[in-house]
Specification:
With about 425 residues, the protein is of the alpha/beta class. The protein has helices at about 80-90, 110-120, 145-150, 165-180, 205-225, 235-245, 260, 265-270, 285-295, 310-315, 330-340, 345-355, 355-360, and strands at about 10-15, 20-30, 35-40, 50, 55-60, 60-65, 90-95, 125-130, 230, 250-255, 300, 375-385, 405-415, 420-425. It has a domain at about 10-60 and about 375-425: Urease, subunit C, domain 1. The structure holds zinc ion. Zinc ion (ZN) binds near residues 68, 98, 158 and 305. The site of zinc ion (ZN) has 5 residues, from loops.
């Protein structure tokens, strides 16, 4: 990969590396693509480029654990090239790619279509998930062992949960022997939100449907010992179920999205299909429970569920428009503005949820700044004020409810393997 062997000295930033309990003004030297040294007044071999980071935060490269790159099969929505460029411009150094492509990665050859394409056109690292079942049809297990050998970092059938409990149990048992997580969407039955805040016309997964699937899968984890990573948990009770399972020692992790952490279901009335996703937006009580879960570690990571669609698709009537919104270019700004600056999450924990935790869950090499780790770094300007402008996204998708939002805090440089793959143009 073109970025993997560069050298760079990042000078004078506030380095926050939760895995090593570091929060200090330090220089960071990346040598030939990997972290070499962290220290004061570091020298570098002649000719090494220097990035001046005074006044900025230097963090281990952020990893987005839930991204839809759409290639192969849906290149009108997004490609690996545009999706990873969007990741870079949002401060994300690596993405875990969801398998709802055509063909889906349900065999080694299909999975290699993604890794080969990513090596040729990707701006950031791409770690694919393989399918749990053949064709994502929920009938026969995919060859999980072969997918793992071909580079799958976990397994999911994405928007189609595995409804057959025996099949899910077999998948968890096999994933355990492979040491990889299963990351199902827990969205079983089309239902709808109840209560006064419920918005009309869109029937997403009801809270009960989501919680029922989580409860079932937690029971299967208890039976098998397989690692379950619950994608985008969205309800207070879902978080409570997961918290209890973790307290009982079960190998369960989970993620929450920036939109479930910042919006409630009224957004659907205002933004229509640009606030339509699955699981749907919930109530303010759920939002508060998600923030609490993120703080206390019941929720391990913030992940975007970046889901680009074409303008024509999202222009359909609400009940026909596809689910999902883009997130790669707004996630870090939303995290800093609405969680860190709002006092809901301290900065070190936010960095942890974006770097160390996703690396740990999917067994990825990054997430920390130890010597020998990938030279992946996200540089943040906590005070940068900016306004979300979807027309400037590098993603093909413009489907976001956050257009026009004023944000405070931004990723101003994205460094992958020592190479600056994105630098904010207003930052010199
Ligand atoms: Zn998804």
């Amino acid at each position: 990969m073109p970025w993997s062997t560069d050298s760079l000295l990042i000078r004078g930033g506030r380095v926050i590396d939760p895995a090593n309990d570091v929060d200090d003004l330090l220089d960071l030297l990346i040598d030939k693509g990997t972290v070499a040294t962290l220290g004061r007044n570091l020298g570098a071999p002649a000719g090494t480029p220097v990035y001046e980071a005074a006044g900025l935060i230097v963090a281990p490269g952020f990893i987005d654990a839930h991204v839809h790159l759409r290639e192969p099969g849906f290149e009108a929505k997004e490609t690996i090239a545009t999706g990873t460029a969007a990741a870079a411009s949002g401060g994300i150094c690596a993405v875990v790619a969801m398998p709802n492509t055509v063909p889906p990665p349900d065999c080694a050859a299909h999975l290699r279509m993604v890794t080969t394409r990513a090596a040729a056109t990707g701006t950031v690292r791409v770690y694919p998930l393989g399918c749990i079942t053949r064709g994502r049809e929920g009938r026969r297990l995919a060859p999980l062992d072969k997918l793992a050998r071909a580079g799958a970092v976990g397994f999911s059938d994405d928007g189609d949960p595995v409804t057959d409990p025996d099949l899910m149990q077999a998948a968890l048992a096999q994933a355990r022997t492979l040491g990889l997580p299963l990351s199902p969407h827990e969205e079983l039955t089309p239902g709808r939100n109840a209560g006064p805040e419920a918005a009309p016309a869109f029937h997403g997964a009801s809270p009960e449907a989501e919680e029922g699937m989580i409860a079932r899968d937690l029971e299967l984890v208890r039976l098998t010992g397989g690692h379950l990573h619950v994608a985008h948990v969205s309800t207070a009770r879902g978080v409570a179920l997961i918290r209890r399972a973790r307290e009982a020692g079960l190998p369960v992790t989970c993620e929450a999205t920036p939109h479930h952490l910042t919006l409630t279901q009224e957004a659907l009335t205002r933004h229509g299909s640009n606030a339509k996703m699955n699981p749907p937006l919930r109530t303010s009580r759920d939002v508060e429970a998600l923030c609490q879960g993120l703080r206390d570690g019941s929720i391990d990571v913030i992940a975007t569920d970046h889901a680009p669609h074409t303008e024509a698709e999202k222009a359909l009537p609400l009940d026909q428009a596809p689910c999902g919104i883009v997130g790669l270019e707004t996630a870090v700004g939303l995290t800093l503005t609405h969680l860190v600056h709002a006092g809901a999450l301290d900065l070190k924990t936010a960095v942890d949820r974006w770097s160390r935790q996703p690396a740990r869950i999917f067994g990825l090499p990054g997430g920390r700044l130890n010597p020998g780790s990938p030279g992946d770094v996200t540089v943040l300007d906590l005070e940068r004020e900016w306004t979300v402008d979807p027309e400037r996204f590098r993603s093909k998708g413009r489907n976001t409810p956050f257009g026009g939002w004023p944000l405070r805090g931004k990723a101003v440089a994205t460094i992958v393997g020592g190479c600056i793959v994105f630098q904010d143009s207003t930052n010199g």
